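Quick log. Single chain, no ligands specified.
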Amino acid sequence: MQEFFKSENMGDFIKFRKMITPAIIQVLFWAGAAVTVLAGLVTIATSFGRYGGGAATFFGGFLMMVLGPVAVRIYCELLILLFRVNETLTDIKNGLAKKK
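-> predicted structure:
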């Protein structure tokens, strides 16, 4: 954490050269995965109720529990990919600037 407060890193943060969004996306992944699992459990639980949908609702909830976190993961990876492309292009730009 002390490295962050060095003038060089803090300047990059203030000038939007250092991105904090990838760290936030990782937190959002875990939150999204938890929400999809909980939603799947609620769907499964409601399938047993008086007005439940029976087997279709049960399997829908099961699929939500299994495929929901996978879908959230893919979405988050695509978002992080954008930031990694940006970092790579910045590194290439800085490398070319040093050669001149």
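The mean pLDDT is 86.
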